[in-house]
Write a structure and sequence with these properties.
This protein is mainly alpha-helical. It has two helices and no strands. The radius of gyration is 34 Å and the shape is rod-shaped. It is a peripheral membrane protein. It is found in: Mitochondrion inner membrane.
Length: 104
């Protein structure tokens, strides 16, 4: 069984699709004359599907890697920002402590 055959969607297999369609117009389809073309088409469609799946997996891995890198960058930026805020608060508290000592 194969998916709906569309020359536009399965461009790599277009010649085989056309050949099978032509073969099916004759009575040879009832006597197995189209079987060879059908098997070649099935192999072509399988290869096409596997190639697309491989590309999709590679793209997903790349997207996942980019997302992970962005997440790590955001974590680093957040740590830096948190450290700066803490340093500023420490400076303020030290300045307030120093100002309090001068008043006594």
């Amino acid at each position: 069984m194969h998916p709906h055959l569309d020359v536009n969607n399965q461009k790599q297999c277009a010649d085989l699709i056309r050949a099978l369609e032509e073969c099916h117009k004759s009575f040879g389809k009832f006597f197995g004359e189209c079987n060879t073309i059908k098997y070649e088409l099935k192999a072509c469609l399988t290869k096409d599907r596997n190639d697309k799946a491989r590309l999709n997996r590679e793209n997903a891995r790349m997207r996942k890697k980019v997302i992970e890198e962005n997440r790590k960058k955001e974590e680093i930026e957040e740590r830096i920002l948190t450290d700066r805020i803490l340093q500023q608060e420490r400076k303020k508290s030290h300045a307030n402590e120093g100002a309090g000592d001068n008043n006594n």
